[in-house]
Amino acid sequence: MKMFFSCALLCAFLVAYSNASCSITQPKLDLNLRLPKVCKEEDGTVHNFGDKWTKDCFKCECEKPGGITCCTSYLEPRGYDTQLCEKVFDKQSCTYIVRKKNNPAETCTFTSSSG
Asked: Which residues sit opposite 44 in a β-bridge?
């Protein structure tokens, strides 16, 4: 039973992360062609190896040797009536809602989602 539970948990984890959209920023060598000792974002923000943070609805991690991996922290709804409904992204909560075009107060159902 433990083995079944472990396998089910692993499958759920893999499905969740396989739906995420990710980007990887490669480290830049310094003037002496050495790898960096920290990660640096494009805006100059510095992170130590192993640091994790969320920015603009992306979950990011500073990895050795200075690369940054960022993945979406939200899922995009799929499988809804696009003639009657529209998806709207809320930047504050990093979530989508699907609502009726002619009555935005009423939500629509969807059958799947992807990242």
From this structure: none
What CATH number is associated with residue 57?
Answer: 2.10.70.10
CA neighbor of 26 nearest in space, from 71, 73, 72, 64 = 64
98, 18, 10, 92 alpha-carbon torsion, rounded to 10°: -40
Pull the structure tokens for residue 48: 């130590």
Range of the domain at 48: 20-72
Give the pLDDT mean for 95-113. 95
Name the β-bridge partners of 89.
96
Whether residues 66 and 89 fall in one domain: no
Q: How many domains does the chain have?
A: 2
In a domain, residue 41? The reply is yes
Could you report the per-residue pLDDT of 46-79, keeping only the tens digit for each? 999 999 999 999 999 999 888 999 999 899 999 9
Residue 78 three-state SS: strand
Query: How far is 35 from 84, CA to CA, in rounded Å?
Result: 52
